[in-house]
Amino acid sequence: MYTTNASRGLPRHRSRHLTERYTRWALRCVIATLVIALLWLVLAFHLNGQWMFALLFLVLGASLGVVFTKRTLMSHRYIFPAIAGLGVFVIFPLLYTIGISFSNYSSSNLLSEERVRGQLMSQTYQQEGNAFDLTLYQEGELVRLYLENSEADTPQRFVSSPLNFDNHETRQIGIQAVDASPTQEPLGMRAIIQARDSLQELRLLTPNGAELRMAGLRQFAPMVDRYEAREDGTLYDRRDDRVLTPDPAIGFFVTDNGERITPGWPVNVGFTNYTKIFTDPDIRGPFMQIFVWTFVFAALTVVFTLAVGFVLASLLQWDQLKGKAIYRTLLILPYAVPAFISILIFKGMFNQHFGEVNMILDTLFGVRPEWFTDPWLARSMLLIVNTWLGYPYMLLLCMGLIQAIPQDLYEASAVDGGGPITNLFKITLPLIIKPLTPLLIAAFAFNFNNFVLIALLTGGNPDILGASTPAGTTDLLVSYTYRIAFQDAGQNFGLAAAIATLIFLLVAGMSLLNLRLSKVKV
């Protein structure tokens, strides 16, 4: 006799088998749905010309299908989501950034060559001396257009059939010549403005075959396509009587005298962006200055935060100190406050005219430092604020490491006549510095890319004079890259990507050093 399922009267092992069967079936349905969705993304990106994203989702979908359908890869199913996330959000952006660094990708080189050619071919210009004044007349619920060219030797007048302006689609309308103007009162400018979208979509055909388009709120005129495509790939500019030749080396159409016609398209420029960083004086000077300051800022931040945290941690271990728990809580409170709130508060406190810091300094010493306009004062302010933000972390680390030191060592030192200074340099520091070193390198790497502090406190200002790119004396490499990519008028994404790649190599080197010091095999 065996146990049965009470609800269905089935044997327990059979019920469990059915449950596992339905679970596997449901899992396969979910995997199939995800694969279909990823294939749809592949097709969508491919049709939009984004082959890199199409390739990404193709690889993702294929690997998803293989891992979850082959029994031999069953052990890899649990780690697949993490690997997929790493590939999508870390590896792919990194490879994409490196790829951009070898191109001239910028705000003037965004579109593909085909789209640039299409945009130029869509441009039109107005023929001179053939503009027609526009007047609208109400006719029931419809509107009739009246056009008149009074400046011509022989005035021309045309009128359209009644139109419904609720239709905003591009359409061609034939117009007829008339001898006299309508007698009713015309509609005002307000009606023309309300119907502007519909008027811009109209193509009015005169009896002689000329096409009129809206050239202003009060005019229609013959609009001629500006560029004419030729069989050799060049474009002829009818308005300026010149030929535009596509230059694949720079990604622009150029005229006979070398003038570049925007927009352009991205092309491969090799190591141009990397060489420009070190050879162009207008870029090399600010870059090297920011590069040195980035290292100095990160190093001094680690030194100052460690010094403050270590001193406070040592004081909190003092046996004669009462209320340690209260002091410990108060000293760690800055770590609990979101950094952006603290930064904005400090920005107000260091205000040159109304800030509390200058009010105190003016009262005590009669000085009002220009924290945001003097380069060295601005850098000092950054170090002060960052020390305040970072010392609680070092305090926690040092407290934990100091508490792990055996008390027998201090007792033996006391027997030998050692004092606090001797204990500090002979026992405490030597025992905590080794486990603390990897954490200090990690803190250095974090402050090396401390974008939030710079963006919220100084914005990189004051600016470096003579720089051809947006560069400030308080910029770090990461904020300098951001300003080149998103705040410069040219938005040179290729140059910004090259700098970002160099930053990655530096941070990767520090991470490798961190692993070596942590004795982790790589």
CATH topology of the largest domain: MetI-like fold
Average pLDDT number: 87
Number of helices: 17
Provide the number of structural domains: 4
Q: What is the topological layout?
A:
Layout: H1 12-47, H2 51-67, H3 80-101, H4 113-121, E1 124-126, E2 132-139, E3 142-149, E4 156-160, E5 171-177, H5 189-194, H6 196-200, E6 202-205, E7 211-216, E8 219-225, E9 227-229, E10 235-237, E11 242-247, E12 252-254, E13 260-261, H7 272-279, H8 281-316, H9 324-336, H10 339-349, H11 356-365, H12 375-403, H13 407-415, H14 420-448, H15 451-457, H16 477-486, H17 493-517
Parallel strand pairs: 5-6
Antiparallel strand pairs: 1-8, 2-3, 2-8, 3-4, 4-5, 6-7, 7-8, 9-10, 10-11, 11-12, 12-13
Helix pairs in contact: 1-2, 2-3, 3-17, 7-8, 7-17, 8-12, 8-14, 9-12, 10-15, 12-14, 14-17, 16-17
Domain ABC transmembrane type-1: 291-514
GO molecular function: ABC-type maltose transporter activity
Subcellular location: Cell inner membrane; Cell membrane
Features:
4 domains; 54% helix; transport; 522 residues; sugar transport; cell inner membrane; transmembrane helix; alpha+beta; elongated; cell membrane; 17 helices; disordered N terminus; Periplasmic binding protein-like II
Explain the overall architecture.
This protein has 17 helices and 13 strands. It is of the alpha+beta class and 522 residues long. The protein has four domains: 13-78; 113-121 and 227-261, no CATH class; 125-225, Beta Barrel (Periplasmic binding protein-like II), CATH 2.40.430.10; 280-517, MetI-like fold. The protein is elongated. Residues 1-7 have low confidence and may be disordered. GO terms for molecular function: ABC-type maltose transporter activity. One of its GO terms (biological process) is maltodextrin transmembrane transport.
